[in-house]
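Example complex used in Figure S2.
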Amino acid sequence: MSTDSAISIVWIYPDLLSTYGDRGNMLILARRAALRGFPVQTIEVRSDQPLPNSADIYLLGGGEDGPQALAAQRLLADGGLHRAVAQGSVVFAVCAGYQLLGGSFFAKGAKCGGLNLLDLHSDRGPSRAVGELGGTIDPRLGLPPLTGFENHGGRTHLGPSVAPLARVTTGIGNDGSTEGAWRGKLLGTYSHGPALARNPALADLLLRWATGMDVLAPLDDTWSDRLRAERTAATAVS
Amino acid sequence: MTDGNTAKMPLRAKVASSVSRTAAALSRAAGRGDGSVIGGWIGLKIDPDLLAHLANGRAIALVSGTNGKTTTTRLTAAAVGVLGPVATNSFGANMPTGHTSALAKAGHTPYAVLEVDEHYLAQVIAATTPRVVALLNLSRDQLDRAKEVAMMADLWRTALAGHPDILVVANADDPMVVYAATASPRVTWFSAGQRWHDDSWVCPQCGAPIERQADQWWCVNCPLRRPMPQWTVEDDGVIDPRGAWHKVNLQIPGKVNVGNAATALAVAAQFGVRPTDAVGRLSTVTSVAGRYAQVMRDGRNIRLLLAKNPASWLEAFDMVDHAPTLLSINARDPDGLDTSWLFDVDFSPLRGRQVLITGDRAYDLAVRLEVNDVPFRHVLSFDEAVTSVPPGRLEVIANYTAFQDIRAELDRVN
Ligand SMILES: [Zn+2]
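Predicted assembly (652 residues):
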């Protein structure tokens, strides 16, 4: 969309939102697109730079409280992400970035205004959710189970116009029963950091949304499959 | 078991100190590590103020930070050794139990140089009233349970603000450290370089962005900026506050260790040690609790490097020769349970050499290396790794428990 026919992937504010290997999601999307022969352009946009309006995929990562609040202010002032979403861009957000997509969240004990792109809001939970996170994904998305690692103090409450990404089988996610949320081509999850490393099928869903293609050529996912199997077995015994 | 140091102690502290040493010896005899944790734990049970009693009468330096504190502590102890015997926790037992045990074991020494886990710095300052505190760096490390980086800087800041007499020796290149150290009126700044910047894009003082250009950094909004360092590194030497350059001959590799040597000389100078007198002693440090140790096995010269977090992986890649390299990753409690940080490390410097992977979490590493276009082979054991490479150098880079596992394979090499 943005430059000729390349799939453009924007990583939003790596200077603020990159606490847990978040770069991985950009690298994985770019690699899986390139292996299928799609030209790819990755763009890292710092918080003092304007956000492009018409990239194909936008990524929001995790962050500590101060940077999260700052990112929300910048994104609201910039307006670029809202324009991109109105034009049908894909957004994939994890952890603090996921909370940002909602109406409000808590940072440093204060309630902060979010981007209002997804019908949800977040508050503080009774305890920090740290550990393996797993769940069965909304069947409409046609994906294998979610597996990841979560580390957050928030709890997220979904409104009627979003669907949970998954039903929790391990860990906490939004509230111990549901995990993440999606609507249209916007998807958020508490599976933090390089969530797509453990969920290559989710990466491909984002690429399908971005390209409009129903099917992508299969890739050799031997190592991802082994990692998924190993993690699933580890959480089953504990 | 009395000596000059314990003679001044209350009886309870004497008993505790003696029991602590005995327990440590028993634990060592039973083959349970070096005994420094168990000995200190028992001593502190008998006398909760034992650490303070043992610290009393000694001139003490504390060394803290996310990375490099074990090696810097060892180098600093060597440098301060110019003045006389130095007590130190040389096995990396860096919490109050380890400090208690180290001081009890050392008996009377006029000096002590103690490595301190960054979470315990405030507590150990309160217990030991140190003359010098060295602050190396703060970066992400085991974030699934550790305090966030900015929160840690705040804790340090509060601790130093309450002790204005302490001579602080702090890293001018790390905004988090500078923010913490400026709470003290008595700071000596060193510049040891910093390859890792990803935890300090946001000003810890005001939340505005931090700009960087070459060596310099500054907050775009408030006065926080890089102070002018008095101690710096140039080539393979250290420049002291008078501008004199001292060549550093180290037996341990890497530019980062020249930086650690600068820190050690700066700390020793606070005790009155001249860098010309101390610099030669730094070459007596060969390996540190197995780090940098070299072992021969089946014709392979195996060198061990510990890398615990993204910043230290970058340093490790800077140290390794162009030789076959084994990477081992675990995610047990001491490592942190989360492997996400693997994607914060750029493994591309390893391209073009034979790379082997192993450890509990080898599959996490496999996925990371694949995305990074670094070819690798998965091996199931350390022995398989050794036999998979030709005779000659094998570099081993491992995170904490993986490192200890390999050290055990090599008969707990030091
Ligand atoms: Zn500032």
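Residues 404 and 412 of chain B are 8 Å apart (CA to CA). The longest strand of chain B covers residues 300-306.
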